């Protein structure tokens, strides 16, 4: 008998999937946020149902306790299905709702997977992530949702390489389905009632879950959409991008805000823009280094302390930016990493990577858009990573954060609200303290690109309004290699990084 755990089993696709597995005689573990007494379906009983609110950061521990109480030491299949949606302009998405979405859709599945590793390994089991066909689409009305699902894809991709031979990893991409999710975000019934039923989608998902294929788009139309989104992403962006409403300002003093500008690539970028006579504000958590860099940059430069992992700190920084000139260029550069085998790394450390690299960048950008601190025609620059193209076994959560950031950037690019330009940068190994700290092997450090060269590529790419920048010939070659032969690229990453950990 298979032991199967499904999150978000109280409604929609999760409930329909649970019903299928119950008919097959599986031992079910159903996770939901609602109290058991409120659930009318006979499927739910105290022996099967674990109440855990995935919006809570300790949800994985609640589930772990429940499993221990029920003496469940091995699990054959975990389906991370719970998710929440949101529709609207990214600048209208409230900070608390953004945090909740990234917690439920991304951080909870990461935390639960981490907690359940041993139980999955004991069973030689499988972990499946319910992503979405929109994860690779630059849909401006679902910016944070797209980022959460793209990050989940990136995480699962690298985890699959790490766990090969021990626990299978699969990513499912359903498309629009007739479930309560649409009602919850305020879509009219006349629209979502036309979508396929949860039962038919769950039946297809169950068939896919029996296969070993890593990525499965659910249904023919979604296979086509996903195929297009992967093979001709630029064409889709061209089709989807609304025309900019107005060109850039003529009389505004250029003012560049660089997050994580106290060190590494951020500091080099700040210096590069300052060399062009642009005013700089550095946002960083490191007071001493931040102050030292602005002293180097001279008059007009400013430093604002921010801890991007704390929304209240981001809000304070946004308010402080109110006394600076309007922003012409925002460089979302701040990032940390956490390198090691996923199941061995401390969970808190990995979730901080998501909080700083992804949640913080999204919170800052959305608040600046909402406060109209970014001028019409402004430039946004996002420092993603080459890992978007080649995967990053040994830093699966870092990889998630950078995939999510690149996906968010694309949704901003297609959003009329941004009314600016977006450049996403995919640096490869760079000679910074960051790389030194997280690399398993620093013997070839001199081969890494100097941060000043990355800064030049950022500046020139942004000036030329390029959508994507790959600093250096090596990064370009690897990105092409990763796109044409993703499995080979992952294998190369595994042997050069993961196997040396
Ligand atoms: N519907 C679509 O068009 C569509 C398309 C592509 C992908 N997906 C994905 O498919 C998955 C299932 O969605 P669905 O369409 O079946 O939506 P749904 O009917 O709203 O089901 C979502 C499930 O997640 C649960 N959930 C939400 N927040 C939670 C929390 N904080 N803690 C625990 N459980 C929580 C919900 O609980 P409650 O019942 O208490 O709300 C519900 O059981 C999601 O990951 C979604 O992103 C859906």
Task: Furnish the topology, listing elements before pairings.
Blueprint: E1 3-7, H1 12-23, E2 27-32, E3 49-51, H2 59-69, E4 77-80, H3 95-123, E5 126-130, H4 143-162, E6 168-173, H5 180-184, H6 189-192, H7 198-209, E7 215-217, H8 220-231, H9 233-240, E8 255-259, H10 264-275, E9 279-284, H11 287-297, E10 302-305, H12 311-321, E11 327-332, H13 347-370, E12 374-383, H14 387-390, H15 396-413, E13 421-425, H16 433-438, H17 451-463, E14 468-469, H18 472-484, H19 486-496
Parallel strand pairs: 1-2, 1-4, 2-3, 4-5, 5-6, 6-7, 8-9, 8-11, 9-10, 11-12, 12-13, 13-14
Helix pairs in contact: 1-7, 2-3, 3-4, 3-13, 4-15, 10-17, 12-13, 13-15, 18-19
The structure holds NADP nicotinamide-adenine-dinucleotide phosphate (NAP).
